[in-house]
Fold these 2 entries.
Entry 1:
Amino acid sequence: MRISWSIALAAATAITVAVPLAGQEPPDRSRPPQLGPTPELKLPPIQRFTLSNGLAVVLLEKHQVPLVQVNVMVQAGAVMDPPAKSGLAAMTAAMLDEGAGKRNALELADAIEFLGATLSAGAGQHTSLIALHTPLSKLDSAIGLLADVTLRPTFAAEELERQRKERLTTFTQWRDRPSSIASVIFSRTLYGTSHPYGAQAVGDPSSVAALTVADLRDFHQARFHPGNATLIVVGDVTTAGIRPKLEAAFGQWLGAATGKPSLPEPKQVATRQVFLVDKPGAAQSEIRIGRIGVPRLTEDYSPLIVMNTILGGSFTSRLNQNLRETHGYTYGAFSAFDFRPAAGPFIASAAVQTDVTDKALSEFMKEIKGITDSVSAQEVTRAKNYLALQFPSEFQSVSSIATRLGDVVAYGLPDDYFNTYVRRVMQVTRAEVERVAKKYIDPQRIAIIVVGDRSKVEPGVRALKLGELRTLTVDDVLGKALALP
Amino acid sequence: MKRSWLALALGASLGSTGMQAQDVRIDVPYTQFVLPNGLNVILHQDHTTPTVSVNVWYHVGSAREKPGRTGFAHLFEHIMFEGSGHVAEGNFDQWLEAAGGNNNGSTANDRTDYWEDVPRNALELALFLESDRMGYLLQSMSPAKVDGQRDVVKNERRQSYENQPYGMASIALSENLYPANHPYHWPTIGYMDDLTAASYQDVVGFFKSYYGPNNASLAIAGDIDPAKTRVLVEKWFGDVPPGQPVAVQPTPAAVLAEEKRVVMEDRVQLPRLYMAWLTPGLLQPGDAEMDVLANVLGGGKNSRLYQRLVYDLQIAQDVSAFQLSSELGSAFRITATARPGHTLSELEQEIQEELDRIKRQPPSARELGRAVNQYEAGFLDQMEQVGGFGGKADQLNHYYTYTGNPDYFNEDLSRYQALDPADVTAMAARFLRDDARVVLSVVPQGKPELQAQKRKTSQ
């Protein structure tokens, strides 16, 4: 291998001219070079049309690479799961490509893979997404498969049994993964059992064990209608070119909108509580600290994302600088607002080494309190620039553009949303950042989750007196383990 | 709009049976030059978004580490972000974020890469930062910086290996595949004691040995003007002093002449089986065959192992096959997790039967076509992003480092398009030997009896 390296150097040298640099002044390294004028993102307009059956299509042309992304977004998410059928939307979505149209599961997978395309289906809290990514040259065949999967899933009983076994085994494997345990207890602690956000979208062992083919068919019939769906198309296509193909594939799909469920208002965390889940032998403690945030369409969205960037949304954020760079407690500390149609969680997190769990919690609480005190002008400027100026780079791939368009569709954002994003972020003021920090971050009303080796971390955590401390086992969080061989 | 760089001649029709060699061509035009200090430079224009990626590869990785200092190449990578001669600690990230930039780096056996993805107006900032740490890192180095990142890296090891179910398996596999004196024997993340032992003096020595411009390649891809960019590169990298010549590393042979059966206990519910073999190195003859073999065995529902173990018999939760290609030699790996109620011995027997079959009987034209078509589509996907890991700037440096030709995309893809089903079987028979492999059982703690039991059949 070193031989090919030597050849490489020789070849490279042969085709180039060395530049005579003798006499050139060394550059001024005393300060960073000045930045030129900020470039602007100029996206082509979002195109919208509807098929003859009323199915809405949103399209953005992107012609650099002969690829096409077609996402079907359906208002069919876990929040629509009936009581005791948690995981139904997710299982319905997972079963869409387990046989559809005239193909069984294996034939369908073979057809998609032979095209060099990928097709995935899944459900989140509010929507199901069937995502097709295909070379332009295979678009016609691929769209037909996408329509089969969306409109004509087979829901074969033996495939459901297979999926069920796989899912139940996954639940068993969650026991091995402290981050999974932390996610489950975090959602349940914040939202309780009466709000859909308290459950995992994939359900739980008892609900998944009870799902039937009839449940899946009913859910699909009730929810998968053109009135509840939008096609999102991005890539090397035009409206004129793709419209007849979409019409042929989706135009016969019938059904009207069925409305969105109204969610109960989640109840904010009332006091500061600590939940310590014992994971004996864990090399680190998984920390999750959070409370209920705010819906996506809040007027405070722009100042909130700037505030979070300062707190824990970037490498130079306070949490990461403190816990990673200053103290070396962790490989990384973060925070985020999980924006959803209803108020999703605010979450600060890190995996910290076991023997500094208490110290890490102290630093977390210091920063969470600190962000409600004040922010510097320099922090605000850096965070705004970071968010706004990197925004154009997110429009390089058809799949990431389609994901962005998904937000426009899901939240009814205006068509000039992308082109005005930079201006909205740059208009945020320091006073607004400080206002939203005080409004949405309250260190006295916050849930603290620690998943780690209780025997090693409990005394230190208890001594912090952060609030009522409750200890749990993995069984308390995930239910009793299956009997294994 | 700018399709010129992507010449496509697509096959006319989709046959219902094994269709191959669709003549997809991928060309990424570039300009290349070498500075007097030995720095190789590659420039590529892509005006899709006003973004530029500045990407640097140093041809050094964990394979160059000394015994007792494993994990050092990666620890060094971390230290590269902590400031340099004219950049105070913290400023590297603060300045880039304030310009709307992102950055990262990664360390592998053979190379270390760094990138900054910035709006085009911040290109010069990225060049200043990269050139400053290439030329003047030691001017601001201190034992305290080493200590700080030592703790971070130890936590990276805890998070990504020790606290992950099955996280220590990959380390055990390398230790058993390679002899103790082979540079792939130890993990890139390193051993805890070695991370503890790493010193300030080690940083100085490593930088002087391997971080000169003559051991590096700079690729810039994105919304650039090549002529102006060349002037900026000469301005910022021209004063970086050349480093010592880097000698070819004497590499001991990696020979495995037995089946090693290894058991490891972990905090897991379900036992998992790993099988691993030594295979041809990155881009060497046989490497593409092993990639396709991995797809035939473990890629998708119709792959032989997935269909048999997961889909039909439902005795495994997952199964995968992968060719881990590296410069000094590769490893081919099969991984399967037992479903509750099933044993690793069952899994091994079923896998063995499929291995025996693929070694005798070539894959069908459909199986090969499916794999090759997926590779072709994957190459198209690579054309979308200029930056980040695996973006075009990273790929140009990858190909330059290992072949000398930055635009090796088409040659790489052609390896797959040229394959015949018999080639795949021939390489499977040659390299996936029953008497030269590692079989690792990861079992729940206290249950060594759940390991895969060797079959008592003669072959």
Note: Chain B touches chain A through 115 residues (CB under 8 Å).
Entry 2:
Amino acid sequence: MDEKNLNIIKDYKYGFSTDIENVKAPKGLSEDVIKFISNIKKEPKWLLDWRLKAYKRLKVLKEPDWQKPKYPKINYQDLYYYSAPKNFSEKPKKLEDLDPKLLETYKKLGIPLDEQKRLNGIAVDAVFDSVSVATTFKDTLTKHGIIFCSISEAVQKHPDLVKKYLGTVIPITDHYFATLNSAVFTDGSFVYVPEGVRCPMELSTYFRINASDTGQFERTLIIADKGSYVSYLEGCTAPMRDENQLHAANVELIALDDAEIKYSTVQNWYPGDKDGKGGIYNFVTKRGLCKGNNSKISWTQVETGSAITWKYPSCILKGDNSIGEFYSIAITNNHQKADTGTKMIHLGKNTKSKIISKGISAGLSDMTYRGLVDISPNAENSNNYTQCDSLLMGNKCGAHTIPYIKNKNSNSNIAHEATTSKISEDQLHYCQQRGLNPEEAVGLIVNGFCKEVLQQLPMEFAVEAQKLVGISLEGSVG
Amino acid sequence: MEDKIKIDFDKAFKNYSSDDELNFKKNNLEYFIKNGFPGRKLESWKFSDLNQIINKNIGELNFFTDIKKEISTNKNYITKNIDHNKIVFINGILEEVDFSFEDKDKIIISKEVDTSTKINSENSLLNLNNAFCKNFYKITISQNYSMKRPLIIYHVSTDNLSSTTLNSQLNFILEENSSLKVVDIYDDKSEKNFINTFYNFILKENAILKNYKIDKSQNSNIKYSYNNIDQSTNSISETFILSNGSKFLKNEINCNLKGQYSSAFINGVFSLDSDKHHEIRTSINHLVENTKSYQLIKSVLDDKSKSVYQGKIYVSPDAQKTDGYQLSKCILLDKNTEFNAKPELEIYADDVKCSHGSASGSLNENSIFYLRSRGLNYKQAKKLLISGFFLDVIEKITDEEIKNFIKKTMELNQ
């Protein structure tokens, strides 16, 4: 690698691309492409019909335009909707069969697929462009009856479960990007935790966009049966490219009676360069349904990457006594833009929700928190607490808070507070007096600001995320 | 609607004197016809779909009705407790202007409209107002003059009026070091009309404006009121809204803080019952350094009523050292009530102190228990708690005389 490339990679260390032969669907979006995807995945007819129904719906839908970060119009006919490393019509049975280049890629990313050198107790499903390339720890999980595999595999092996739950939280008639995903989704993870099982390890998916001109459309479906517990993590990176790439994933969570799902995201897609060129458009739909009584869904997200982040991980609190939580840190620097937040929809009695959102904007970036708390007339004795704080660094960035609060039940309480400020001179002065340089001082204060959210992440990732927070803000001080 | 509105327009302005003004009106009419009444597709009308509300409660609207005047004899809408100057609108038409408590040459009233200003096409109701408002009056308070007595503006409608839109408009200019107190009192005998009021205030250096809007008389009219306030250096504006009597009422306050050290205060009270739907929407634009804004909105809802608060604080990149605060609270008494809030911050400057809070819920059972253990019955306890809740806002009113007047109107006795 020459020196120039090395310098770039210092800024975004996941910015390399892997030179690997690809199989791609023809460019553009059409019924044929959908049939091609469905065919290459050997999908049953009901799923193809489902995809085509979504495509039909997509044709009448309009792309939304109410969001704060505006972007140039995406040409949906100029994208590849399917890209996979060659010879991937069959997923390799063993890791040894995997293309060494792929293994190398994941090694570089710090995601060891080789179980010998595994991260302690984390099962990984690795998704490369449009397909899942490897899933680790299958044996241990199978012992507990937990299904953790790619969604394509689940369609083949557990069609009943997929058919029963796919699209029940995000229907194909949802908004534009969700419907687009329903029509062309390629791969993703599938998790089913059977009744009464507490998943013994963290499950994790690692998403990687490699090919250029490719949109990544993965679909994740997690089902926690009665009384079960699962903690799931996702991480994402992409190579540095000059053009913008679209990532429109759908994530559906379903928690039945007494079940709990903890979903954590560390999103570090390529954010574009210092002048705002390139980067990923991260338009993701994430929604959890607390279907059963006493169920709980908790979202934690650390959003540091992407040119534009536009997502609202939501909870539908349908079961009585169900709980929804949302913890978020969103950091934007340079020309990055983010419009993120959550929706808490209270339908059941005695439902509770909590929203903690921390936004940090630096450079020329723009950060928006947008959230909805909706307590329906039947949601007796429900409670919501929302806190969103924004931190501004420099006077060229923006921080916005747009909460929607709807209370239709007289026995329910909603409390919302939000503040916007900068790091105070006093705090900085105090830290510097104790021997920290300005950058370290800011790092320390920012980490304190984020602590409430970082604490929610599983241990291994908390350390990683903390470092990421520091890196994302590098060069924004002074 | 389109044909009807054109016919009504021609009827109303058959022999209009000024060509400039007529063109201005026609342009505005075109904009209104193009956009119509706002509906829920517009972000600012998301919680209150006016189009639907008008269809449901009024049906077809007239834009002009020629009613014989026979009402001037009956003047029992006039408040007797305060010595005051007055402006009286009867059925949307200005009938009486009386500044007898003031020095004659200090208040200048002129009849003019600045037709050169660009037509604001974002607010179709403003276009409607410009098109159908009979006369554009401009009231100027001279330099260094503080009004001795408050100005009460009566908005009266008579019982022979129905299914009509009433459009009235006033422009106020407060010259340097002047001050003005305006009280708006609505007295409605009519039913099922759409009443559209627009005020424009321009505050020069050190000017002080206090505006108290009192909507107390029970009626089934649909109302919209818009205040635009432009503030120069060191000026202060205070707005208080009592939202109570009408079937539907939306108060919109748009405040531009254009001069350093200017400040804006908005306080509001919703006290609603029986199917009423009221809204306050504020937008405070901090455009220069060292400006301040404060908003406090409280709401008590009973019996299927609904209140909405949409508050926005905008801080431009130049507006360092801004201090912005917003608090909205709501007590829901009945099962079928609804409170919607959208407290919004849009901030582009970093050295600012901006925050908002919003809370809604039921009456605090512990407080009720405490009061009952002191010998009050449930009804008394509830009343006392609600009075206390409201008084928090009422006490923010800086004018003692008007504060007491409002307390009396609201039957809040300490």
Note: The helical segments of chain B are 2-12, 19-35, 50-57, 124-132, 365-373, 378-394, 400-409.
